[in-house]
From TrEMBL:
Example GO biological process: isopentenyl diphosphate biosynthetic process, methylerythritol 4-phosphate pathway
Keyword match Membrane: no
Residues annotated as site: Positions MEP for the nucleophilic attack: 148, 205
Protein name: 2-C-methyl-D-erythritol 4-phosphate cytidylyltransferase
Family: Belongs to the IspD/TarI cytidylyltransferase family. IspD subfamily.
Origin: domain of life: Bacteria
InterPro entries, sorted: IspD, IspD/TarI, IspD/TarI_cytidylyltransf_bact, ISPD_synthase_CS, Nucleotide-diphossugar_trans
Swiss-Prot/TrEMBL catalytic activity: 2-C-methyl-D-erythritol 4-phosphate + CTP + H(+) = 4-CDP-2-C-methyl-D-erythritol + diphosphate
């Protein structure tokens, strides 16, 4: 069984608010996508890496760790679909990862891939939720307080049997869905199970400016540990 990884890096990074696309913003002197590709290349399971890049960045040296580079789409879902379209024929397990989760460790890729190889066709890493979450209506009124012990904050890489994720994306196109919250949600919409494995604190998503400070701190901690 061969494992391929699609790293989606074509987002603009509006919430980060920098001039260049988020995946090309630097932390620790290297772009986020470079860090993500380092981790993917250190995974014992990943044999092939596809990067989905923003317009104009397809030839950027930060992508030298990729086997294939394709242009992005208008939404994350479209970008993932572009990556799925160029997978090598022998890839039967697919990891789908956000470049924005650039410090997810190689062990997390391995854990997710191993769970797919063990027979779960859709796998997500999840961590406990630290805040109490409320469901709020259009008038700003709380309508529910879900039991926090049942909730998980879900990360990437998410892992799938290739046949299942291709079917899930094809069904999304047929339904007219264009902006799924994540890839597992498309599998859920097929009525298929999604298995959760333990996530990792370092797999947080660089989204807002303060996340760059956290990423720098994680890199400094890693450098001090070697
Ligand atoms: N059209 C898009 C949108 C997002 N992504 C990727 O999907 C991941 C998760 O998206 P997010 O963190 O929301 O990134 P952005 O869309 O860039 O962020 P923002 O919503 O702040 O603009 C990122 O690695 C991003 O590059 C992508 O490849 N193509
Ligand atoms: C895929 C994801 O990272 C899982 O948590 C998340 O759904 C991406 O959300 P975003 O709004 O595109 O950042």
């Amino acid at each position: 069984m061969s494992v391929a990884c699609i790293v989606v890096a074509a987002g603009r990074g509006e919430r980060l608010g920098q001039e260049r696309p988020k995946a090309f913003v630097e932390v620790g002197g290297r772009p986020l996508i470079w860090h993500a590709l380092q981790a993917a290349s250190r995974s014992a399971r990943v044999a092939h890496v596809v990067v989905v890049a923003p317009d104009g960045y397809e030839g950027d040296p930060a992508l030298s760790g990729a086997d294939t580079v394709v242009p992005g789409g208008a939404t994350r879902q479209h970008s993932v679909a572009n990556g799925l379209a160029v997978l090598p024929p022998d890839a039967d397990v697919v990891l789908i990862h956000d470049a924005a989760r650039c410090l997810a460790p190689p062990s997390l890729y391995d854990d997710v891939a191993a769970d797919v190889l063990a027979g779960h066709d859709a796998v997500v890493p999840g961590v406990a939720v630290v805040d109490t979450l409320k469901v709020v209506d259009g008038a700003g009124l709380v309508t529910a307080t879900p039991d926090r012990t049942e909730l998980r904050a879900v990360q990437t890489p998410q892992g799938f049997a290739r046949t299942v994720i291709e079917r899930a994306h094809a069904a999304a196109v047929e339904r007219g869905d264009t902006d799924a919250p994540d890839d597992a949600a498309l599998v859920e919409r097929l009525g298929l199970p999604v298995h959760v494995v333990a996530g990792h604190a370092d797999a947080f998503k660089v989204t807002r400016p303060q996340d760059l400070l956290l990423a720098s701190t994680v890199l400094a901690r890693r450098a001090a540990a070697v």
